[in-house]
Each structure stands twice: as C-alpha cells, then as structure tokens.
Automatic annotation (TrEMBL):
Transmembrane spans: none
Name recorded for this polypeptide: Thioesterase
One matching Pfam family: Thioesterase
A biological process from GO: lipid biosynthetic process
GO molecular function, one term: hydrolase activity
Organism of provenance: Streptomyces sioyaensis
Length: 276
C-alpha cells in the first residue's frame, strides 16, 4: 500500500466513512481522466507513464516531476477503486485492467514516452507494452521495471487475496509498506481491503503467455534487500527485449521506490536521456 496514501488515510479517520473513502487518496490535477493523474509540463520533451504497486496510486510519484525536471511530464495511473475512482469496482484480473487502460492511451502519445512500473506496476507496464504493440500504437522509447521478478518465473509466494480479513491484514504486515497505524484500524482496513485484495488477485493469477520479446530498451531496478524480486530474479527481464538491457541495484527492501525516490529518479533520468 502507498505510504503517502496510508498517511492521508490516518489523517482522515475523523471523517464519516463515506467521506473518508472518497478523500483518502489525495490526487493532483488530472490530465487524462479517469486513468492518469499529473501536473501539466508544457516544456516537456517526453512523458513518463508510471504504474503503481499493489495497493498504491499516484502518490508514490507525486514528487517525481520536481525530481526529473521540466523536460519530463510525469503521469501516474489511478486504478479503479482509488482516489477519485474510489466508488468504482476494482479490477481483479489483468485483462479487465489492461484493455480500458490501453483505450485511454492514444491522447497521451503526442510526444516520446517511457513506461515505469514497480512490483505489480512492472507487470502491468510490460503487458501494456505488449498490448500497445498488438494495436499498432506508437511504442514507448523504454520500459523501466522495478521490484518485480521476470514475468516468466512462477509466483513463489503465498496466495493471500482470498484470506480472511485478519489473516490478510497480517500478510500485509509481513510484506511491509503499510503503516501499523492503518493496519490497526479495522474500519479503515475494511475500506482499503477491496482494492488491496483485487491487486493481489491480479498478481496471483498472472501467467506469462510467452509472446515474442519487445524491441524496446529495458531498465530493471532491484532492491538490495528485496527477497521478493532480487537481482537474480530480475535478470530474466533481459530475455524480454531485443534492444538494450540494464540491471541496477537500489539500496533497500521491496518498497525502495518510496524510500529512495531520489536515487530511483536519477537512474530513470539517465535512462530517459542516454548518451548521444
């Protein structure tokens, strides 16, 4: 779960439940409602489209525009069931997420772009590339996959999406990334749980279909203390492209994308602007 969203959830616990549910995920101005959130960047030379991890939303990327500078427009996906889309049914399988997400892309592809995804977001970003290729849309200049094992590897972890509420909460505690102040509030967790369960259902049901590799450069980022997606488990992303591939370590555990935003965006910036 997004740490910024969780902190906002705690702040809003004094609101009535229905108001809290619609307000708990703070968002910035929308450029491509309902899927994409971001700030206008009229001087931008390229766009970075960011896909969140399970339970996350645009908040992870809210400072990235500042960190990457005015030449990059940063747009982050708002999945159904989060933020201004809180009242919508969350997607529980990849096709139900991927197809409408791709439908919303053409209006954003007026300049060169790169896809970034962390954890579940990396899977979505990769599959989005494949769907873009199927539809004959302009391909991204690059794909950044962060904190996610290579797509052809089997899921090695416990299935949690259908666990009883107390066991599911404990599984989130074990994973990390969700503040204890949120996990300890059953009413708040009951509001968050449908979207969280749906995201984990996508993770657990995903199966790579063995399509031909992309002709898109891939940058893979692996947390040095992330046992869910170590460098060894991410090395296989090299087989998913016929273009260049690079694997870089980032200090931290699975949620290094939050804790090491400056380091991550520095690597992304170098990837966006390779040496000429």
């Amino acid at each position: 779960m997004d740490r910024h969203a969780a902190a906002e959830s705690v702040r809003l616990t004094g609101l009535p439940s229905w108001k809290r549910g619609h307000a708990m995920f703070g968002i910035t101005r929308s450029l491509a409602a309902p899927w994409w959130t971001g700030e206008p960047a009229p001087l931008a030379e390229r766009t970075l489209l960011c896909l969140p991890y399970a339970g996350g939303g645009p908040q992870t990327y809210r400072r990235w525009g500042e960190l990457l500078g005015p030449s990059v427009e940063v747009l982050a996906m708002t999945p159904p069931g989060r933020g201004r889309r809180y009242g919508e049914e969350p997607c529980r399988d990849l096709p139900s997420l991927l197809h409408p997400l791709t439908d919303a892309l053409p209006g954003l592809l007026h300049r060169p772009y790169v896809l970034f995804g962390h954890s579940l977001g990396a899977t979505v970003a990769y599959e989005l590339c494949l769907e873009i290729r199927r539809r004959g849309l302009p391909m991204p200049q690059g794909l950044v996959v962060s904190g996610r094992q290579a797509p052809d590897l089997p899921w090695r972890f416990r299935q949690v999406s259908e666990l009883p509420a107390d066991e599911f909460t404990e599984a989130l505690r074990d994973l990390g990334g969700t503040p204890e102040a949120v996990l300890a509030q059953p009413e708040l967790m009951s509001l968050l749980m449908p979207a969280l369960r749906a995201d984990f259902a996508i993770v657990e049901s995903y199966r790579h279909r063995g399509e031909p590799p992309l002709d898109v450069p891939i940058l893979a980022l692996a947390g040095t203390e992330d046992d869910r997606a170590s460098a060894d488990h991410m090395a296989g992303w090299a087989d998913r492209t016929t273009a260049s591939f690079a694997l870089h370590p980032v200090h931290g555990g699975h949620f290094f994308v939050d804790a090491q935003a400056a380091a991550v965006t520095e690597l992304v910036s170098a990837f966006l602007s390779p040496p000429r």
